[in-house]
Design a protein that fits this description.
mainly alpha
């Protein structure tokens, strides 16, 4: 599968992850977002990384669950 197709799929996954966050399904949302972020990092796609950051910003709970903290750890320090 080419990078363009992989990147497109990752962007779609992030759109779905946003929907999961809105519905309160955080485990699925951030697991999906983490997979998409890995694709973005592999292909050095700033667009995917920015969309992943937007998914993270869409959750604003006071005490984030482990899946969100793990996502934060992966996203921390990513610059593209």
């Amino acid at each position: 599968m080419g990078s363009s197709r992989s990147e497109h799929r990752a962007l779609l996954q992030l759109d779905m992850a946003s929907g999961h966050v809105a519905a309160g399904r955080l485990d699925g949302a951030f697991t999906m977002a983490a997979r998409a972020l890995e694709v973005g990092l592999r292909y050095k796609s700033g667009r995917i990384v920015e969309r992943a950051r937007a998914v993270r910003r869409s959750y604003s709970g006071a005490t984030p669950p482990k899946v969100v903290r793990d996502f934060d750890d992966r996203l921390h320090g990513v610059f593209l």
